[in-house]
Design a protein that fits this description.
The chain has 2 domains: 217 residues, Carbon-nitrogen hydrolase (Nitrilase/N-carbamoyl-D-aminoacid amidohydrolase, 4-Layer Sandwich), CATH 3.60.110; 172 residues, Rossmann fold (3-Layer(aba) Sandwich). Helix content is 36%, strand content 19%. By secondary structure, the chain is of the alpha/beta class. A hairpin with a 2-residue loop joins strand 12 and strand 13. The protein is globular and about 70 Å long.
């Protein structure tokens, strides 16, 4: 059986655009010989619809989009959607089979082409080995670097039990959460087909072929770079900006400018010079005023360490911090990845301590015992983090009156990692 993987780029509640994207990729799979099409759970509804999914109008529009998609397809397709009746209330979307212009809801398994196909949405448990020939995963969780590698390993482990496993995910960005795509298929414990993250695309995988389809290697710096560029481009498009502005005094302005140029082109990137002789708060407010005057999105170069410990005076200046979830060592890896520096910075003691305190949620005594760090230094770092959190709540952010659109003045940090 030849399975077509559709990995679209989608937007929340933009049914017409999402439908057009899915149809284009589906037709490309059919032209390549696909017998069954698989699309993500967010293919038509858009990623992270939130409270929209409970509105009757949203569900009716989703139902109409499903029917329109079924009318366009010449081969069966499996996907998930919040489509339903006005009185329905569901936390997760339901799986649907589109076949011959008909839309049918699938509870757990469906039989197609003489094979039993199990459908798992979100975090639903996988079927018992032997109960299905093919297991289709439609994940709905936000993306971060380690998860992409862990998901590939998890799918490969599941495929060791004689069941082909296919995971299909959309490419989207909304409200600081990201879906990076990276759809894949595995059998016999080996990943056979892999689509690149943060890119719209498609692939056709033959379940009978034991060969590995050539594809990009999963490398963390490249994936992080795609995530940064993708977040900048989506923020500009969704906010209706003409481009981005970067503070010239930012310590990571060169890398930030390279990411913005890769996402928008050189014409969409502008540099703002800080006003000398003014306080930090006045300078940040001046930068925001200038960016708004030219309808530009102001980017901040703050890293995760700056966010936690207040190490950057421009942390409050930008509406989007593309490096806001990256440590210094990861930013150095990005610089080497794009050719801006050849030396990788090893994690410092402060970075290792922050990872243990924040990411691993360990106590200072436990970190000191495990890693041999000075407990006094760890407690001083915790006090610095507490002061930074208090300052963020004590001092008011610069207020900019906006007329044409309502965009929050507080910094928005997209989540590359959790």
């Amino acid at each position: 059986m030849r399975i077509g993987l559709v990995q679209p780029e989608v937007a929340v509640a933009d049914f017409s655009s999402n439908l057009r994207t899915v149809v284009q990729e589906a037709r490309a799979c059919v032209d390549a010989g696909a017998e069954l099409l698989l699309a993500p759970a967010q293919a038509l509804d858009g990623a992270f619809p939130g409270g929209l999914s409970t509105r009757s109008s949203f569900m009716l529009h989703a139902r109409a989009a499903l029917q329109a998609l079924a009318d366009e397809l010449s081969v069966p397709m499996l996907l998930a959607s919040f489509a339903g009746e006005p009185d329905e209330r569901r936390e997760l979307p339901s799986a649907y089979l589109l076949r011959g212009g008909n839309v049918r809801r699938v509870k757990r398994t469906v039989r197609l082409f003489g094979k039993r196909i199990a459908v798992c949405i979100g975090e639903q448990s996988t079927p018992i080995p032997g109960s299905a020939d093919v297991c289709v995963h439609l994940p709905m969780k936000s993306w971060y670097a380690e998860q992409a590698r862990d998901d590939a390993q998890h799918v490969a482990r599941q495929a060791q039990h004689g069941m082909a496993v296919v995971a299909v995910q959309a490419v989207a960005w909304a409200d600081g959460l990201m879906l990076g795509g990276g759809s894949l298929a595995a059998s016999d414990g080996t990943v056979r087909c892999l689509l690149p993250s943060f890119q719209r695309g498609h692939a056709v995988w033959n379940t009978e072929n034991s060969g590995v389809q050539e594809g990009p290697t999963l490398r963390t710096p490249q994936i992080l770079w795609k995530a940064v560029c993708f977040a900048v481009r989506q923020a500009v498009q969704q906010g209706g900006y003409r481009g981005v502005a970067i503070a010239e005094a930012s310590p990571r302005a060169q890398l930030l400018r390279s990411a913005a140029c890769s996402a928008l082109g050189m014409r969409g990137v502008h540099t703002l010079r800080r006003v000398e002789g003014r306080s930090v708060r006045m300078s940040c407010a001046e930068l925001q005023d200038r960016a708004w005057e030219h309808e530009l999105l102001l980017l901040s170069g703050a890293s995760r360490e700056d966010t936690l410990c207040g190490g950057s005076d421009l942390m409050d200046a930008g509406e989007l911090a593309p490096f806001g979830d990256l440590y210094e060592s990861e930013i150095a890896q990005l610089s080497a990845c794009v050719g801006l520096g050849s030396q990788l910075v090893h994690p410092s003691q402060r970075e290792l301590a922050l990872r243990a305190l924040v990411d691993e949620n360990r106590s200072p005594a436990e970190i000191s015992l495990r890693h041999g760090m000075d407990e006094g230094m760890l407690r001083a770092l915790m006090r610095s983090m507490a002061r930074t959190a208090a300052l963020c709540h004590t001092f008011a952010q610069p207020v900019v009156v906006r007329i044409r659109r309502c965009v929050p003045t507080l910094p928005r940090f997209h989540r590359l990692m959790e």
